[in-house]
Amino acid sequence: MNTEIVIGGERFEEAMPQKQPMLMLDSLDSYEYDESGPELTGVCSYCTGRRFCTALDADGSLPSWALIEVMAQAVTATMANYYESRGIRTPVGLLIGVRRYVQGDFAAVPRLTDLTLRAHSGFFDERMAAFDCSAGDGSGLVSAEAKLIVCKPGRNDFVRMFSRPDRAAPDPGLFAIS
Questions:
Q1: Quick one: average pLDDT of 48-72?
Q2: Cα–Cα distance between 158 and 147 in angstroms, integer?
Q3: 77 close to 12: Cβ distance less than 8 angstroms
Q4: Fewer CB within 10 Å: C terminus or N terminus of the chain?
Q5: Measuring CA to CA, which residue among 144, 155, 77 is closest to residue 108?
Q6: HEC states along 70-106?
C-alpha cells in the first residue's frame, strides 16, 4: 500500500490543474493507494472563505451546490497524487456525472468553516473512475455526499469537443495531453 503524499506543501497548488480563483482546496492530508484492489482514497481540507474563490457568496459563505465542485477537486487532488507519484504530470480530467447527491439541511456553508473532503474509488482505469465522495465539518451541521464519475479525455477527444461542424478542426498538436 502506498501512502506517500508527493503533492504536499508548495507542490499542492502546482500539481492542481485548478488555479486561483477556482482552486478551493487547501491541502491533501492523507492518501492511500492499494494496488491489490485497486483502491484509491484521498482526504483533503478546505476552509470556506479563507481565500477568494469565484463560488463564494458576498459574505464569504459557500452555496451548498458548490460542494460538488469541492468534492470534484478532492478527486483531482487524489488523482494528482496518484499520477505525480509515478512521475506523470497531472492530466486534464472532466467531471462527467454526479449520482446520489445528498446534503444536509443547509443552504450555504458559513465563512471560515473547516471542511474535510473524502474521495474513495474502488474503480478506476486509464480513462475513467467512479469516486464516492463526502464533505463535512465534523459537527454534522454541514454534510454532503455524492458519487462522482470522472474521465481523462484523450488527445482526439479534445479535438472533437472543441470542433464545430462549421469550422475546421483544431490542430491536435495544440493539446499537450499525453
A1: 92
A2: 24
A3: yes
A4: C
A5: 144
A6: HHHHHHHHHHHHHHHCCCCCCCCCEEEEEEEEEECCC
Q: Which residue has the cell 494528482?
A: 80
CA distance 77 to 20: 15
Domain ranges of the chain: 10-171
Q: pTM for the whole thing?
A: 0.86
Residues 6+ apart with CB under 8 A from 63: 55, 57, 107, 108
pLDDT of residue 176: 45
CA 141 centroid distance within chain: 23
| Residue 165 clears pLDDT 80, i.e. is over it | no
CB 115 within 8 A of CB 142: yes
pLDDT tens, 104-135? 999 999 999 999 999 999 888 888 999 999 99
